[in-house]
Amino acid sequence: MSLPPSSRLLSGALLLLLAPALSACTGSDFQMPMNESQEKAKDAAARTDYYESAALTYYDGGKYEAAAQMWSKVLGEKPGDQKALWGLAKAQQMIGTPENLRQAEEILLTIVDLDWNHPELGDRRHEVQGTLAMTYQGLADYY
Questions:
Q1: How many Cα atoms are found within 13 Å in the side-chain-facing hemisphere of 115?
Q2: CA dihedral over 22, 23, 24, 29, signed as positive or negative
Q3: Pick from 118, 113, 108: which is nearest to 88 by CA?
Q4: CA angle (134, 103, 71) in 5-degree steps
Q5: Is 99 or 122 the better-scoring residue by pLDDT?
Q6: Ramachandran category for residue 90: left, alpha or beta (phi over 0 → left; psi -120 to 50 → alpha)
Q7: HSE of 92 in the Cβ direction (CA atoms, 13 Å)?
Q8: What pLDDT was estimated at residue 101?
Q9: What confidence tens digit (pLDDT) does each residue in 56-87 have?
Q10: What value, to the nearest 5°, has the Cα angle with vertex 139 and ends 92 and 62?
Q11: Which of 4-8, 93-97, 101-105 has the lowest mean pLDDT?
Q12: At what angle are helices 98-111 and 82-95 packed, to 10 degrees?
């Protein structure tokens, strides 16, 4: 079965139109996918960013238990992270039970003397000290 002349003409024109696009595919700078360790590192960074963003969102929304869980997950990915420790302590302080206040106190006492200089916000140590003071105030309310 042969195509009518109009169909052959249409297919020829279509081929001429698509030829530059097809040749561009072979000349592109296509890179092979990352190796497995690079992919895992990228996944871990994305996961940590998600946990941190969720923790901040929960905290701002008054969901302190959920914020504490997300900060704990950040610490699972990045143990000893200064910002995550402070976030966890603030969330626990806001939960306000004696047990959570004691956990917040323990964390804050270990991080209060760290370097809290931020390149744009300056020294934030006073904010950490303020969180510790509010933790002690919360504990005093129980006694």
A1: 3
A2: positive
A3: 108
A4: 95
A5: 99
A6: alpha
A7: 24
A8: 97
A9: 999 999 999 999 999 999 999 999 999 999 99
A10: 35
A11: 4-8
A12: 150
Residue whose structure tokens are 């006492």: 109
CB 93 within 8 A of CB 120: no
The enclosing H or E element of 103 equals helix 98-111
Q: What is the pLDDT, as a whole number, of residue 60?
A: 97
pLDDT at 95: 97
Secondary structure (DSSP) of 26-50: HHS---PPPPHHHHHHHHHHHHHHH
Q: What are the tokens at 55?
A: 């923790």
108-139: burial string, b at 16+ Cβ within 10 Å, e else: beebeeeebeeeeeeeeeeebeebbebbeebb
Q: What is the pTM of this model?
A: 0.73
Q: How far is CA 34 from the centre of its chain?
A: 21
Asked if residues 87 and 67 have their Cβ atoms less than 8 Å apart, the reply is yes
- Residues of the chain above pLDDT 90, percent: 62
By C-alpha distance, which of 114, 140, 116 is closest to 127? 116
How many residues can be counted in the chain?
143
